[in-house]
Automatic annotation (TrEMBL):
<keyword id="KW-0533">Nickel</keyword>
<dbReference type="Pfam" id="PF05194">
    <property type="entry name" value="UreE_C"/>
</dbReference>
<dbReference type="Pfam" id="PF02814">
    <property type="entry name" value="UreE_N"/>
</dbReference>
<protein>
    <recommendedName>
        <fullName>Urease accessory protein UreE</fullName>
    </recommendedName>
</protein>
<dbReference type="InterPro" id="IPR004029">
    <property type="entry name" value="UreE_N"/>
</dbReference>
<dbReference type="InterPro" id="IPR012406">
    <property type="entry name" value="UreE"/>
</dbReference>
<dbReference type="GO" id="GO:0016151">
    <property type="term" value="F:nickel cation binding"/>
</dbReference>
<feature type="domain" description="UreE urease accessory N-terminal">
    <location>
        <begin position="2"/>
        <end position="66"/>
    </location>
</feature>
<dbReference type="GO" id="GO:0051082">
    <property type="term" value="F:unfolded protein binding"/>
</dbReference>
<comment type="function">
    <text>Involved in urease metallocenter assembly. Binds nickel. Probably functions as a nickel donor during metallocenter assembly.</text>
</comment>
<keyword id="KW-0963">Cytoplasm</keyword>
<dbReference type="GO" id="GO:0006457">
    <property type="term" value="P:protein folding"/>
</dbReference>
<comment type="similarity">
    <text>Belongs to the UreE family.</text>
</comment>
<dbReference type="InterPro" id="IPR007864">
    <property type="entry name" value="UreE_C_dom"/>
</dbReference>
<dbReference type="GO" id="GO:0005737">
    <property type="term" value="C:cytoplasm"/>
</dbReference>
<dbReference type="GO" id="GO:0019627">
    <property type="term" value="P:urea metabolic process"/>
</dbReference>
<dbReference type="GO" id="GO:0065003">
    <property type="term" value="P:protein-containing complex assembly"/>
</dbReference>
Length: 165
């Protein structure tokens, strides 16, 4: 099968198969995937695309649903607004739930959050972070849509605050 387009929910047709992808694998342009039923699916999209849980890849045989695969994450509880600010200040993808935050497993962030008084628990579950200002699942590393007209380049360390004016 070959997929050349992405469909977003609600899907008009029932998926013919499913493909499980972790957070990193849901950013793709051209890649050979294996579906749950064992079929090969060649994804050939026009540009790198961030797929969200529930999206579908439109294949020549029909829609193949994207399912967020379980992966190592950290469940964070405590002063959520303050903790979320520190996570966001490091441009780290974050899944926001009513009573906890979820981030990808990272020993440095774990230590920082515990130092801020958070309770941090390891877990294995699907990671579906907030998409941010640019739409669903559009959190990709440090890229962000603001200029640096304040006289400095884009490169800067993340171990300290860095206001952008």
């Amino acid at each position: 099968m070959k997929a050349t387009a992405v469909l977003h929910p609600p899907l008009a047709a029932r998926p013919i198969d499913r493909v499980e992808l972790d957070y990193d694998a849901r950013f793709l342009r051209r890649k050979l995937l294996r579906t749950r039923s064992g079929a090969d699916l060649l994804v050939d999209l026009p540009k790198v695309t961030a797929l969200a849980h529930g999206d579908a890849l439109l294949s020549d045989a029909g829609p193949v649903e994207v399912v967020a695969a379980a992966e190592p994450v950290l469940i964070v509880t405590g002063d959520l607004p303050r903790l979320a600010w520190h996570i966001g200040n490091r441009h780290t993808p974050c899944q926001i739930e009513p009573f906890h935050l979820v981030i990808r497993a990272d020993h440095v962030l774990r230590a920082m959050l515990q130092g801020l008084g958070a309770t941090v628990t390891e877990a294995w579950r699907p990671f579906t972070p907030e998409g941010g200002a640019y739409g669903p699942a559009q959190v990709m590393g440090h890229s962000h849509g603001h200029g640096h007209g304040d006289g400095h380049g884009h490169q800067h360390a993340h171990g300290h605050p860095h206001p952008h004016g």
